[in-house]
Amino acid sequence: MAYLDDESFLLHSPTARRLFHEVAKDQPIYDYHCHLSPKEIATNHRWENLADIWLGGDHYKWRLLRANGVDEEYITGAASPREKFQAWAETVPYTLRNPIHHWTHLELRRYFGIDTLLSPATADEIWDKANSRLAEPDFCVHGILEKFRVTMVGTTDDPADPLDHHETIAFSPLRTKVLPTFRPDKAFAVDQPKAFNAWIEKLEEITDTSIHHVSDLLQALQKRHDDFHAAGCRLSDHGLERCPALPCDDADASIIFDKARRGLPVTAEEKEKFTFFLMVFFGQQDAAKGWTKQLHLGPFRNVNPRMFDLLGPDAGFDTIGDERQGAALITYLGTLAQQGSLPQVILYNINPRDNYLFAAMTGAFQDGTVAGKIQFGSGWWFLDQKDGMELQLNALSSTGLLSRFVGMLTDSRSFLSFPRHEYFRRILCNLIGSEADRGELPDDFEALSKLVADVCSGNASRYFRF
Fold first, then answer.
1. Residue range 404-408: average pLDDT?
2. First-to-final CA distance of the chain
3. Torsion angle defined by CA atoms of residues 32, 35, 38 and 39, in that order, rounded to the nearest 10 degrees
4. What b/e readout covers 101-133, taking b as 16+ CB neighbours within 10 angstroms?
5. Closest CA to 403 of 451, 333, 344
6. Which parts of the chain span the membrane according to its record (predicted)?
7. What number is the average pLDDT over the span 126-135?
8. Mean pLDDT, to the nearest integer, of 405-422?
């Protein structure tokens, strides 16, 4: 069998192939959580060369370059784009069995029409062909979104960020809906008073208010929540090592807030209490507006202090965490449920140890008001690959309803990541189709097709009310 054969790649049975090619392949994409730049979408950005679009900001590739012994000069340093691409071409042959080998060559095929394997020997040819394609009129942000039938993109936005790029996009001819996602994690940083107060100043400016008390902070955040809703936002998101679990009343929150505003030290216990206070507030606001709350739980971030000092965050120096998730998550979700203010929630874990914990947790908080109200989210970050996706699909299927799953997202900063939806769809179709051909699922193509179509796009459209 040929490598990445379009007909059968990852599809190991006749029904799997039929499901993908007849049902899944051309479903629209709802990329409801990503880190694409609203500015680049608003300006219909174009790229100067292959290194610019392919290697800039992609910490997945940066990690493998470092693992292959490539000097930082050729990763995030001052080397030329062609030199950085050459370093990547020299690394790719060593990525066999890493999902990056699949993604690299899917991207070359789907975006550039190149089916040559990348290596030092083919680097010149691929560089020239890809750069020639980049110069064509349709190779721009809007062209990519059209080509891949992207119906919706959910960017990730801080409450203190302006929404002017989203306004520009809304009045552009782009048919893809591009909606902000409310990500207020900087509000929790009371243990870093300098950064916290700088963020408060930005929030004051964007809301045209003064924030002297914790009640002022809640009012400013409420205003931004309202502004985001008016801009089409229907999701929030939080990235945490684990949910906070220490209850906090107004008086305690006020004391902690005042300490941070005065630049005084805040303990780890006080930070957790303040985070719990705000997370309950955010949950109440999300529930009131019918939003979906996403909880990305578990990573240890910026674990290499030397490289953090050199390059800052999001540079490829994060890892899978081993925090205990269950009790804290129960405390948080239970608090909201007790108040009658539990919104739709999607839980994402980064440690595969927690697959069944999270999958089973969703069943404990379903309330019959919305099909699949509490979701076990797609394999995330280090689990965003074949094995991780299969583990997530199997845990969800074994403990809940796969048929109500809202499906795949890229969680990416790159406009070249949309083939990851194809990758997921092939894995999904192989799972369903192969079990049907073994007699483990009914021989009912119509029923199987509905399951596949719903997971690929239909459930997301209904669940998020787009």
1. 98
2. 40
3. -160
4. bbbbbbbbeebbebeebbeeeebeebbebbbee
5. 451
6. none
7. 98
8. 97
E strand residue ranges, 109-209: 150-154, 177-179
pLDDT of residue 159: 98
User: What's residue 249's pLDDT?
Assistant: 96
Q: What proportions of the chain, in percent to the nearest 5, are helix, strand and coil? A: 55, 10, 40
pLDDT (mean) for 65-77: 98
Burial 175-213 (b: 16+ CB within 10 A, else e): ebebbbbbbbbbbbbbbebeebbebbeebbebbeeebee
- pLDDT higher than threshold 90 for residue 1: no
* pLDDT bracket for residue 281 (50, 70, 90): very high
At residue 57, does pLDDT exceed 90?
no
Q: How many residues does the chain have?
A: 466
User: Measuring CA to CA, which residue among 323, 334, 195 is closest to residue 276?
Assistant: 334
Q: Which of 237, 261, 46 minimizes the C-alpha distance to 154?
A: 237
CA distances for 198 relative to 116, 240, 282, 314, 445, angstroms: 49, 21, 21, 20, 57
Residue 466 has pLDDT above 90, yes or no: no
In the block, which residue shows the tokens 């919104």?
A: 343
Average pLDDT, the chain: 97
Q: How far is CA 396 from the centre of its chain?
A: 19
| Residue 24 DSSP label | I
Phi, psi of 163 (to 5 degrees): -110, 20
Over residues 214-254, the pLDDT tens digits come to 999 999 999 999 999 999 999 999 999 999 999 999 999 99
Give burial (CB, 10 Å; 0-12/13-18/19+) of 320: middle
CA distance 52 to 431: 36
Tokens coding 178? 């591009």
Alpha carbon 89 to chain centroid distance? Answer: 27
What are the structure tokens assigned to 148, written together? 């891949």
**Angle 306-309-310 (CA atoms, 0-180°, nearest 5)?**
90
> Among 275, 269, 216, which residue's Cα sits nearest to residue 243?
275
Contact criterion met (CB below 8 Å) for 62 and 316: yes
Q: Report pLDDT for 420.
A: 97
